[in-house]
Amino acid sequence: QVQLVESGGGLVQAGGSLRLSCAASGRTFSNYYMGWFRQAPGKERELVARILWNIGYTYYTDSVKGRFTISRDNAKNMVYLQMNSLKPEDTAVYYCAARAIIDTMYNYWGQGTQVTVSS
Predict the structure, then answer these.
(1) Which whole number is the average pLDDT over 49-76?
(2) What average pLDDT does the chain have?
(3) Would you give the distance in Å from CA 53 to the centre of its chain?
(4) Which residue from 108, 58, 75, 57 is spatially nearest to 48, judged by alpha carbons?
(5) pLDDT tens digits for 105-118?
(6) How confident is the model at residue 4 (pLDDT cuts 50, 70, 90)?
(7) 3-state class of 53 per DSSP?
(8) How many Å apart are CA 2 and CA 86, to the nearest integer?
């Protein structure tokens, strides 16, 4: 059974940093995209960053380029999102998700972790 468990959220001042962690278990993720999504109140869920587990290919949405970094640790089966220069508009619930390369939809999700950036 696949499980994704996020941690690392919290309250931080604008300009600060947080690192989110996602512990992935239940299968091998070598042919999976691992994504970080976020959903702010009243807004749709959006893809923030993703990484192709086996080769490390990354993607970032424009609003976080240069500030966020997604990475993975193969030995620990962990995915991270390092968030620097945080802004109040980064406030949201952040979710870790996974989908196989051949799939179009993310079908595994974590429970989410709250990130709040104060101005």
Answers:
(1) 96
(2) 97
(3) 13
(4) 58
(5) 999 999 999 999 99
(6) very high
(7) coil
(8) 31
